[in-house]
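Appendix B. Chain record.
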Amino acid sequence: MTAAPLAKAPKPVSTRIDGEIAVVRLDRPQKRNALSDEAVLALEAAFRNLPQTVKAAVLHGAGEHFSAGLDLSELADAGLNEAIDHSRMWHRAFEAIEFGRVPVVSVLHGAVVGGGLELAAATHIRVAEKSAFYALPEGQRGIFVGGGGSVRLPRLIGASRMMEMMLTGRVYRAEEAYPLGFSHYVVTDGEGLAKGLDLARKIAGNAGRTNFALIQALPRIADGDRASGYLIEALMSAIAQDDEEAKARMRAFLEKRAGKVAPKD
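Structure tokens predicted for this chain:
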């Protein structure tokens, strides 16, 4: 009797293309979208291999949670060298998001914990549903962040607050965390993806060189010395302005064919 072939395990990350928007989804809901090595490598591949037609991306999680963080089963018995290599692999994967080809909007709900928060910090705009909660339980697990959190999170929420979270295990809910820099928006549960897609479409409507300058040059200017920052700013300003698309947009504004900036109700 021939044995039935084993069913293939579902992929941990899926990508669909919606016009100029790539929608990347963490697909391990049964594991609260815990980040296995396979999932992290799949995220890297997804963001490094976006079609050239894509101008912005949305990252979200299937099920009730964005991501509960590192899949601890894959690191429990790792030796020193393996642990270093593991952390460096996460660094490389998340840099494909932070310094990738297109701006990325993350949609956060449920657990945004440990490595899940490190992943969210690598995105450019964060939309939180009211169900989202944030924590860094590494301090209680006897470990330290390894996905770039010690570099990115202090720039968002401050080193002191990150330290307090890791020392005490404090959990922040979406609405109290919003003014502290964890997210840019808070929306009603179930509305995050629609908001993320709306923002991504607005981003995709920008001039390509401007988006490039914002995600590639601006963070480096902020991290560098003032003199270098002024030089990079001048160069990027000239490069963006020299683009034919930018010139067409400026002509449209001067000829009163483009809307003026005004607050919305």
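Further analysis of this model is presented in Appendix C.
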